[in-house]
Amino acid sequence: MRLYVENLPEALDERELYCLFIVFGGITEVTICRDKNGKSLGSAYVDMPEMEQGKNAVRALNEINFMNHFLRVWEIDHGFLQ
């Protein structure tokens, strides 16, 4: 299941984002969206192999205050935002 995460702190790196999501299950990939200079755009993709784990992550993390940023987390439909 592919998740899209918005409103991430600019200084957050892939390892920190991985640590936030790993408590919900396996992770196959974490990709922070960056501009051509490598600066974070404040959004990311998190791929989880199991649908139920992804749904649990969305329920737990959507709209939480993380490092003074209210995250937005949702499941991406195949072909949307990829």
Automatic annotation (TrEMBL):
Coiled coil: none annotated. Pfam families: RRM_1. Transmembrane segments: none annotated. The keyword RNA-binding applies. Residues 1-73 form the RRM domain. Keywords: RNA-binding. InterPro entries: Nucleotide-bd_a/b_plait_sf, RBD_domain_sf, RNA_proc/Spliceosome_comp, RRM_dom. SMART domains: RRM. This is RRM domain-containing protein. It comes from Rurimicrobium arvi.
